[in-house]
Amino acid sequence: MDQKILEIDNLTVEFMTRNGSVTAVENVSFAVKKGETLGVIGESGSGKSVTSLALMRILDTNGKILSGELVYSGVDLKRASNAAMYDIRGREISMIFQNPRGSLNPVRKIGKQLEDVLCQHGLANKYNARKKAIDLLATVKIENPTARFNAYPHELSGGMCQRVVIAIALACQPRLLIADEPTTGLDVTTQKVILDLVKDLTTERGMSMILITHDLGLAANYCDRAIVMEQGKVVESGCIKNLFLNPNHPYTKKLIRATPNKSSQLNQLLPSESRSSCTSYLEGSHQSASFNHKRREPKNQRPLLYIDRLTKEFPIRNQIFRLPSLMSFGKRPKEVQQVFRAVDNLSMKINYGESVGLVGESGCGKSTTSAMIMRLVDSTEGWIEFDGTDIGSVPAKHFARSPIRSKLQMVFQDPTDCLNPRFTARQSISDPIIVLGSLNSKRSLDKRVDHLADLVGLPKKLLERFPHQLSGGQKARVGIARAIALDPKLLILDEPTAALDVSVQAVVLNLLQELKCELDMSYLFISHDLNVVRLLCDRVMVMQSGRILEEGETGKVMVEPAQSYTRDLINAIPHPPELVPQ
Amino acid sequence: MMYPQSRVGTVVRRLGQALPVLFGVILATFVLTRALPGDPAAFFAGPAADEKSIAEIRKALGLDRPLPEQFLVYLRDLSRGELGTSISTGQPVSEELIRRLPASLELTFLALLISMIIAVPLGILAAINPGKLIDHICRILTTAGVSLPTFFTGLGLVFIFYYILGWAPAPLGRLDFAYLPPPHVTGFYLIDGAFAAEWDTVYAALSQLMLPCVTLALFTLAPIARMTRASMIQVLSSDFIRTARAAGLTNYTVLIKYAFRNALLPLVTTLGMVFSFTLGANVLVEKVFAWPGIGSYAVEALVVADYAAVQGFVLSMAIIFLILNLIIDILYTFIDPRIELGN
Amino acid sequence: MTVIINSKPAIKEVVADLESRSASETTGSSRIAHSIRKQGSYIWYILSSNSVSLIAFTLFILLVLLAILGPLIVPYNPLATSAVDALKSPSWSHWFGTDQLGRDVLSRVIIATRLDLLISVTAVAISFVFGSLIGAVAGYFGGWFDKVSGRFIDTIMAFPLFVLAMGIVAALGNTVENIVYATAIINLPFYARVARAEVNIRRDAGFVHAAKLSGNSDFRVLAFHIYPNTLPPMMVQASLNMGWAILNAAGLSFIGLGVRPPTAEWGIMVAEGANFIVSGEWWLAFFPGIALMLAVFTFNLLGDCLRDIVDPRQRT
Question: Of the ranges A217-221, B271-275, C49-53, C63-67, which one carries the lowest mean pLDDT score?
Fold first, then answer.
């Protein structure tokens, strides 16, 4: 049973770059036993993907295995001939990747792509390939596989594409499957379905699996053993339970701490010595925050933000064959015009000093909602009232000149995308102050920016840097500093940590919580991750297909969801085991 | 949100979309003659005309009528295939153009064929051997190739292969004086000669064609090779190639079935631009080799300010280009299943 | 509240520590990702790209100097004819030989630099300004302006461009200015399209939304936030386009448009020399042709180098 199927010993991989060589993987050793699932855990840049590419010998031409041994069931992968490698890839070891749609040839039918692999490895000929491919599609639970055989990747959803990729990977009954962040970018519910499928199929066939992931929750739920990688080195390895309960290496400890679980509190995500008393004094964010707003909100006052039956419709381009515009004189009849309701009769309110979470999967309309509240997009119908003023009736085009503009700000999802690449951090933070603020001297402006940098914990020397010279967390700070530059009353946080590594996420979340109590703001926190929302919000709204499905105190919704969709959403979150408080 | 859509429908739709462009081309050609500064009547009358004859011509051409009416008249004439009369030859422009068109097309198509046969494999080889010798050859060839003025390359080839080596015939037209053109079927001497089994004529025509073809091919080679290389490199680094490799597909399958099919898409798009360059360069090559095509006709007409001829030439070139682009777009729909025309 | 503020340094220090680490991680990983995307031997590339940019830059400076100093350094009057010296092959007194009228080819080639560069630089400048304006507005606002300008651009592109230039010059009149306008018009679509695409992909970028939230009007967003970001690719386009503009202008004068004899211009000099090629007097066409080629080559090389600097991923 404990037979080793793969052994990697002291693997070092280097890349030649324009700036000389970079060691991506250094002295990595691990083994995979027959039938087990090994997790490879690490944050971005830890070299976890490079290891698997090196093992398959499909590194790009500038990457090179410098030293080390790679042995797969007695075959020396490092020295095997190219022809032997063709037989091993797909037949013995196969891979699935992130970005499922990109992993499929866009101009070839998915069935044909399956046939290619089957025929390549001599498992089918041109007479039975089609049938075998359809069987495979059925194995990965694609409905109506005969019809889907002829589909192109762009006609399928991301989850479906990943099933096809899995079918390709499992087509030749390999004995080892390498799954490289297979569900990054997919919704949590899809993630669960896909990983359950992979797990079932591999267990059924007695296969071994290497699951490469940045998500400790996933590793905890699907792996037997795991190794933790940091900057190209393995820092710790062991049985998954031991790893979580008795982590030895400080990096593992930090990672585990930073990953939110079912019961962790915001301030527990950081190493204990750095907890600020702000959060520890608040102890348990959501109780305290609700306490806060109860304390601050005088009775009978209207909420800060009040939204009534907000609707947004987008026209759908009619793709059915029609004559070109030149030949169909006049306008098309009205009834042909179809619309897609991104947001459907949505009502909500946010009180002064309150943090509200808006949770939903991709395409549920949460971003459209935030764009409407921010007055970047006009609503089709509905009423938006902010701080007692009707702002919904001001067209988005003219809202830049509204006095309320400065009171409504936003922190964006992608910290890189949200900064002008040609502005220094200082310029980015100054921009709103120059345009909307009342500071007129350069001196007071600089002072204000310095103060803001201080507030968000951005070292002043970084203020003169351009975005590409900053790390993800630093960019996130610049984005936050810009958002709070004009003392907004409402800050929309649009998945502010989705693009960040988990340890940075922990820091940013704490910072946001701190700023909230310091600057007396309200938050609308948009996220797909209920676990993260729970840390910051008193109330949560669950959104699906443009509607609010459920709403309530965060703790209550998390424990006793009223809707089955919410329950699925909560169950799909891969929780790491709860920590025993030390 | 994809509705199944028949290819025939897509093709018909694409044809429909060409109509506004055709209209735009006709309008632009019309505007070039009528609405711009200068007296079109003086152009049409030629440099030797006096005031009175210009006035007569103005009336005869309908230039004294309002512009929209003139445009309608222009459209009517076009629909009958009338492009006016050349003042230098006295012949209808359309007849002259049709007579000369095969010469130009034979030259252009053969040149494109030659350059594609060389450029596409060169680009692929360079892409799969980055940093190797073939890659450097490709890079040097493409950078030098786009820098070559066609007329200069043509003259260089004439000097070397005609004057020094004496391998090529004199750069004077489609066929040596010793031969008679083959019986007219398509107007392409190579094809007509083959039909008539006059192999001597085919050989003579081919030897006349060789230098201008190579000149033109050298010019179009660079952009095609460059684009092939770039799109191959881009496709080869994409995720689905990695997946295909990880699934154990052989190099050949990965390169041809997976990478090249995808690399074709940007390549086919570039072809439109290449055609544009080729048709333009064609004019220069025809002048250098005294090739009796529509390009040299236009050059001769330009010298004597024979405006009807120039205008007819511009319009017919635009229409040829339009047809070529249409063919490309229709080809594209067959390569790319994702195509949604009209976006 | 005081408690909160006092406690600040603690968290900030840890944070700074965390971030400096993740900064090094990010650069490391992006470098790897970056290199994974590319192939090839990098050391060779660095060397060659440097020496290539060096050559390109040197040639460029040389061209500019010739254009400026031309009249001061020519050995002979480029227009002075001499029946005795007609059709002399290159020698010590006439490095590039003499033409059919006994004019010194070297002097004519040097003098022509200014005119050729002037035509193409002016044309490219015109199309850059108008093209990028049209493209930026169309790309940002969309709507009717986008449709109308799109149709206009499509119509220009529906002609083989050199042929259109011929038509324009023929219609506007056979002068040098009209060569400039014609070259500008046929180059316009490239700038308009690049500008439109570059603006369009940034229209929904996070930093544009952020700029709007900062109270910037649409005009300010376009002019101060988006447009500066599109300049690098536009500059690359301009440099690559210069070579093509020179070729076009020379081509037009080769077929007898624009520049008239006896003005010295590379295209027309090649055209005049063409008649003597078949009788072996190659230098008449050869030297102006080589000059023309070098000029085009310089700008193409320069464009490639600029593109490498601006966007290494687009390297071809």
Answer: C49-53
Task: For residue C238, give how far its alpha carbon lies from the nearest alpha carbon of chain A (Å).
Answer: 21
Nearest to C246 by CA among C77, C122, C145: C122
The DSSP result for B86-147, as a single string, is: -TTT-SBHHHHHHHHHHHHHHHHHHHHHHHHHHHHHHHHHHHHSTTSHHHHHHHHHHHHHHH
My answer on whether C36 and C185 are in the same domain is no
- A395 reaches C (C-beta below 8 A): no
Of all residues in chain B, the one with the smallest CA distance to A327 is B16
Residues C308 and C240 placed together within one structural domain of the fold: yes
Query: Read out DSSP for A365-398?
Result: SHHHHHHHHTTSS--SEEEEEETTEE-TTS-GGG
Residues of C in contact with B314 (CB under 8 A): 159, 163-164, 166-167
Q: How far apart are the first and last CA of chain C?
A: 59
For A289, half-sphere exposure in the C-beta direction (CA atoms, 13 angstrom radius) is 35
| pLDDT tens digits along A395-443 | 888 888 888 888 999 999 888 889 998 899 999 999 999 988 777 788 9
Q: Are A91 and B248 an interchain contact pair (Cβ–Cβ within 8 Å)?
A: yes
Identify whether A145 is preceded by a cis peptide bond (ω within 30 of 0). Answer: no
The residue in chain C having the minimum alpha-carbon distance to the alpha carbon of residue A500 is C22
Q: Which of B16, B247, B340 sits opposite A319 (nearest CB)?
A: B340
Query: Is C55 part of the contact surface with chain B (CB cutoff 8 Å)?
Result: no
Contacts of C204 (CB under 8 A, 6+ apart): none
Indicate whether C2 belongs to any domain: no
Per residue in A96-119, pLDDT (tens digit) is 988 888 899 988 999 999 999 999
C206 and A472: CB-CB below 8 Å? Answer: no
pLDDT in the model for residue B3: 40
**Domain membership of residue C179 as a residue range:** 52-314
C1 lies in a domain?
A: no
| Rounded average pLDDT over C13-26 | 39
CB contact under 8 A, A97 and B242: yes
B43: in domain: no
DSSP B184: P
Provide the percentage of residues in chain C whose pLDDT is more than 70. 82
Number of domains in chain B: 1
Superfamily of domain A1-92+177-185+208-259: P-loop containing nucleotide triphosphate hydrolases (3.40.50.300)
Contact B8, B337 (CB under 8 A): no
- Judge whether C56 lies within some domain: yes
CATH of the domain at B196: 1.10.3720.10
Helix axes A110-120, A129-139, angle to 10 degrees: 110
Q: How many domains does one find in chain C?
A: 2
Contact B247 A90 (CB under 8 A): yes
Instruction: Look up the CATH number of domain A305-317+335-571.
Output: 3.40.50.300
The answer to whether residue C19 scores a pLDDT higher than 50 is no
Query: What is this model's ipTM?
Result: 0.86
What's the CATH number where C248 sits?
1.10.3720.10
Show me where the domains of chain A are located.
Answer: 1-92+177-185+208-259, 305-317+335-571
- C307 belongs to a structural domain: yes
Residues of chain C neighbouring A504 (CB-CB closer than 8 A): 18-19, 22
* Pick from A289-298, B32-41, B238-247, C30-39: least confident: C30-39
